[in-house]
């Protein structure tokens, strides 16, 4: 089954009155119906058989272009105004409306089909003491339903009981969040006693008070009142609609939310579409074109009034009602609005969508962005942003899982002030560890993981000797976590870890003799040096992004109460007992050494707890845990209270290796003048070290600024000092340019100008300093300093801060931004940026589901931007320039003709030519240009990343380029009108008969126009394909076939009024002077363009011109030189970020065991990854550029 979210469509119902709190009682339909809660029926369709036509037309005519052409059609129905037949507007309008209507109708039929299928599913419902099969649509809030294995969850249910031990159920949430691993939910013990007894369930009358309907999939707050007792309800007790029951024979649930109130349906609200800068520019240009159209019509109307006043009296005898010059001018104004409407062609919008769709398919079909290891192709999840991929100026990237593999290995540790993991020779010098280095023998441990690799035997010796501190260290790693064990065979343990960090640490404890074996909601069983020990689990103090730590409180078999805590070193050190000061200093030195090697570090601590204090704390914990208001804040305060006075045990260090090709990709993007900012939760030293590994930070940089102050004033001072070092002669006040943009210039914008910098700089800022820097009075200072740097690394940042940094750059730089990440903590950043890219990695699918584009490896980003993005931008700009050129040229010929027809609004072309010009004669050639053209191929795009920079500067299409296009059209229209007019003036045929008539002139003018714009298209085409040739020559052939057909005797006799040009084609096109006129007009139209382009390439060549010249010189691609990547030696520090997610503490206390279903999927392609997408270094040659002239045809 496909994604249920997508099948349910985009629109969801809602109630007019906002619900503050939900109250319901089990098995009491009368009470629950009195609250008028929504039933379980869903309706995602927009239309029915009666409303489809009027409602769809109403929606389509809300678009400005469609409404404009409807207005023209109304004008054409007025005989005094219309000088064109109705079909010139009706045919294109009906075609566009019909295409959109067919698409909307097809989509809505699918929604109807899906609604019907879902609403008519059957489920067993407890009604009047009996289980009855009911349709989903008939289920009500407060009903008790029975689900069986592999069934979809009917509604949002409170789990009551299940067939599994401890009342567990296993659900698959792939339809909600894209994750295929099974989640575990557990019923309350008090409701679990109901089991599957229909009698007990029928007598169950518990009352639920909970939050109103909302779209938070990861949160639920409520209470269950039963027999005077109140029990806390959270997300771990709720089964959400859209999930599937797995590996569970049966379960019973109480309906809490139904139909449109379910969290699934609350999440399928209207999607906010991102718009490209070209879209916004087009809106402004179209509005300007409307104004320009009105000015032309007004000018021609005034000309008509003057002409009628001066010359019209001579023709008054032939008119039935005489001449009224002002009224004639008024009618002429609207007549010209109809005639000149082609300046805003309706086919423009349809063509743009086709081009975007085609370029999206190119991304989906690109084998060089396919990752065979995971069978993951690239995916364009939106079709509206392709050309913006060619204009990216800032990239905001996560680190873990995006730049790195997010596959952790336990490398080193520090225990009680001694470091383990290094190998020393007899002289005390470090020995480099490689694949040939001897590994530690764990054969003494029958439960050891055979894949685990460690090299320092001294750590094994102290563990086996019974060192209490070392054993306490590994005991903490075996107890303080949220890992779920799975033992398929005796002794074969498999760990399901929520984060790779936890899996690596628990596996390390396992190999060193402290094997996490099993768990229940109340206990954890560990094999300690061969002895089975069961600890009573009293509480889990869960991790979140604010706490950055997690703790467990356990009771040993001897009755000793202990709190074990692990987390970020800065957080743990703040909560240590003062007696640990000396150990803290030594451990800090070890942390710095580990971090300097790019390892992710974690501090471990513990404390013994007094039993009496624990009893009091548990009572207060229960009160906070059942609170309906501010539950999380109250729990955090209790956690903060008990996590004090800790005793330090040591620290761990795990390695997270870089993904393949990351340094080369970042190097390529930097050469394309794209600035890369890394926003990570890692420790400052870790982020800095990874920056060097990725080539973002380089030893040859002038300076790397570190901003790590603890007060707002110190942060401001450090930012100002860095800025003054980069620009000693710069101004203290920023240059802020205020302007207006958008339709009618209603949107105010402020742009902080870029400041010149001599040299290369980088900045590293931590989350504490960033919080001050993002305040309103300091954000400009942060932006100025950061934007002067080639690389910016923000460490220890929260998900909210990631989004704030992106919004800051968007607000003041007016540049196109891209955010890339792989985890749930990157979603806010991905949504905030102009373009969001998700990497399908180790942290689930949340980032992918929120993104605009997705793929499996960071290295594919260079192909997405430097190839697909650049080509899409180039094609769209060429399309728009050419489209406006041909339509303005077409329209201006009508304008000039007005001076020769008494401003009477007579058309210069045949009416059928006007109808078919944009729909048939020029549609396919320009589409082929926009889908297939490329200035250079992908190989050369990689070799010269500077080809990307024109897109960042909007050089290919802007307001200036539009003005030049209009001027070019004006010149071409003058040639296309006056050369045929002069050639036909007083001209006779070979037989002495006159050829000077309106119809012959119209045929000559329209033929010259079509040939000229076709040749212009050929000049704009850089990459000729068979499709380009076929569409271009085919369109010209169709034109001549159509005119000979429509101007024939047969068509005239069939519909005389519609085909008046009888015999014009055969009478005109057999004259040599007609063909010579076509040749002359074509040469005069093309000659200035060719001359200008020749001089521009000769005198002011652009980067594209130079590379294309190089391509012509190098017919055979040169072999890529091999370069050995020099190893960087640096003593810079590095550190750790706790890769974890909130909510898994509650999961383990409720006994939820993660299970992963086997996944088998055939490979999409047999071909392996391409060399370009692999880690081979790519080089470019520096090409100097002189100042370029303004863009012109």
UniProtKB/TrEMBL annotation:
Binding sites annotated in the UniProt record for Mg(2+): 398, 400, 822, 826
EC number: 7.6.2.1
MF (Gene Ontology): ATP binding; ATP hydrolysis activity; magnesium ion binding; phosphatidylcholine flippase activity
Catalysed reactions, as listed in the record: ATP + H2O + phospholipidSide 1 = ADP + phosphate + phospholipidSide 2
Cleaved signal peptide residues: none
Chain intervals with Polar residues compositional bias: 1165-1181
PROSITE patterns cross-referenced by the UniProt entry: ATPASE_E1_E2
Biased amino acid composition, Basic and acidic residues: 1183-1193
Chief place of localization: membrane
Domain P-type ATPase N-terminal: 25-90
PANTHER family: PHOSPHOLIPID-TRANSPORTING ATPASE, PROBABLE PHOSPHOLIPID-TRANSPORTING ATPASE
Protein name from the UniProt record: Phospholipid-transporting ATPase
Species of origin: Oncorhynchus kisutch (Coho salmon)
Gene from which this protein is expressed: atp8b5b
